[in-house]
Amino acid sequence: MPPIARGIGCLPGRGNKWHIGAVSDRWLTSGRVTIMRTGFMQLFSTWKCLARLAAALLAVPASSMAASAVGSKATLQAIVDAAIRPIMQKDKVPGIAVAVTANGKAAFFNYGVASRETQEPVGEATIFELGSVSKTFTATLALYSHELGRLSLTDHPSKYIPVLRGAAVDKATLLNLGTYTAGGLPLQFPEEVSDDESMVRYFRTWKPDAEPDVQRRYSNPSIGLLGRIASLSLQSSFAHALETDLLPKLGLEHTYIQVPPSMTAHYAWGYDERGKPVRVNPGELDAETYGVKSTAADMIRFVQINIDPSPLPQPLRNAVAGTQRGYFEVGAMVQGLGWEQYPFPVSRDDLLQGNSTDILFNSNPVKAVVGRPAGPRLFNKTGSTGGFGAYVVFVPDEHIGVVILANRDYPIADRVRAGYAILTALATVEHPALWIYPHVGQHGELADQLLEHPESWKETRSVIRGMGFADHVLNRNLTDPQLKALFAFLRQEQIELDLEVGAVKPWGVTGEDTFRKERKMWDRFIADGAEIHGIAMDEPVTATLNALHKPLSYAVEETARFVALVRENYPRFVVGDIEGHPWSDKERLLTFWDGLNARLEERGIRRIDYVRLDVDWMHFVHHTAQGRLGWQGVREIEIECHKRHLPFSLIYWAANYGELNRAHQLSDLTWDRAILEQARWYSAIHGSPDQYVIENWVPIPADNLPETKPGTFMQSVLDFHTHVLAGHRRSEP
């Protein structure tokens, strides 16, 4: 592949959060338009996307928002307002904190007061009682101990509490305790259980309703015993293990079992059904089951960690991921450790049923889950104390999540409806994204011009999402001062940076060899101030088969080795694969991508994040009926990628350059006409990439600037945006 700029990027704002609300109304954003496909927020989202959701939102109550409102500050506020304000009025809730995340960026919406007596407003730093959402921390601690080798989920309670040997509860495994399938342990301890001695006596004499693995009965004593055993395995109390070990490792600075005196001013008062201020009542195993207190800021951080635990060190990374494994089906819901999950998208009725009083209070038959369900999953958990109500819901594959914390125990169904509406809104953006990959010049002179004349491509910067470059071109053609200036400009303008890289090449015949050579360039760029969003691997299939003359299985194995090293050393990089077509046909490409992702999953490594097609579309003109059949093949690849939940990116370029050059018919307008012709062909057969990439590795156009001059690269970008993307609406494959 010609050595010019391919990659993928997105544009986060300067900070990592926005604060919006009835009380706190600070809009800290300077991001760009986010244009993305439903379901692919990991790659193509930035936080201004949240202000552009309304054109496709499912609001509460059901209503539509004018397209003209899209992009305004008030839009996202209005969406959350529509979900939350009716609840506050109907259920007489004094205060609610809502946090929303997409692609690691958080927004906060604050309503009402933390205390009716002091009228202290709710904020993202207000501390709320989480109730049973605490169980997700208990599950994480238990799995952390499991990953450390201190306990096994197949163990029985008496291994850690010997006096339980021979008791009915000892027939259950720790997994049964964590999934409420021990045989019918009740929702709460009876009143006579007030200390450890009476708790042990209760477990020794408890009589089950059924054998383990037969029924689910939601139970504080059940998962509470798991939490106690987890802390015993770590030779600590539960509170100490959580507050001094687990929570700091998770980066949660304002999450507590016992709120310290220095933070009590931030601790909200809860309100019971009579409107009286209350705090959580103490009880046996309270810390393990309903005793955690936290803020909206910390809880959305916890959600982000659950969405993408890859930055965490081992063994904590595996512990967090382990909480998302499902074990027992209960209707449409699958019970895991802490979290309850559903296929996504899920109907609101199924979500309400899974959080209903029947599921909460009654025993329900279960079916053991075999293997891991395919496709995206939604995870949620509700929690209540006498004066507080919480709801957390997120979808890792979509990189979206919602936290709702309130200082009143209002109906669970109202929480689920609100969370569902907001979450569904986050998942319904239906626009593609635009990236550009211009020439930098033999000595970086064209890159310098971009920095020296920013006014000459100001409008272009307003419609693009990122820029990419071949890493070896930047490394060879630009000096360190030039690189520092370029990277500083991209940071200032919040333009995302991506690199086209090798994975399997003649100069790097193994994944390890290629990675070793590539990282020297990446580390140089990082030292010069680059904030690298991700990498796009340049045609490992083509290099393996055509240059190295090795089988496709070699490409799978060595590319997997390369990706594994990237994930280990640069865990935040987005990793994609570029392949040529029609040289590699649909069957070969899908075989490679399926094999690569399967190999990565076998090794416990996150699969690649997207694929990109480099199409020699002149082949279609010469060898198919007017190009349509060839483009239909590209469309079929796109559809197959979407079936695999794999974002699909398409390069737009002047594939007719060679033919026109030989015919001496080139002009500065050739590029502009070529990419629009390609766009017309693909749109004609309803092609709809998740990302549009305008990438130039041919000698035309000669100039990048200015955007107002016909025949320049930047003018072609604006022309493409006007004719292809402006007013774009996507239809599902």
Describe this structure in words.
By secondary structure, the protein is an alpha/beta fold. It has two domains: 131-390, DD-peptidase/beta-lactamase superfamily (Beta-lactamase, 3-Layer(aba) Sandwich); 433-725, Alpha-Beta Barrel (TIM Barrel), CATH 3.20.20.70. Helices cover 38% and strands 16% of the residues. The protein has 26 helices and 24 strands. A ten-stranded mixed β-sheet has the order 1-3-2-16-15-14-11-10-9-13, sandwiched between helices. An eight-stranded parallel β-barrel has the order 17-18-19-20-21-22-23-24, surrounded by eight helices. A two-stranded antiparallel ribbon has the order 4-8. A hairpin with a 5-residue loop joins strand 6 (270-271) and strand 7. Helix 3 (134-147) packs parallel to helix 6 and helix 3 (134-147) crosses helix 10 (316-322). The longest helix is centred in the first third of the chain and has 18 residues, at 73-90. It is elongated. The relative contact order is 0.12.
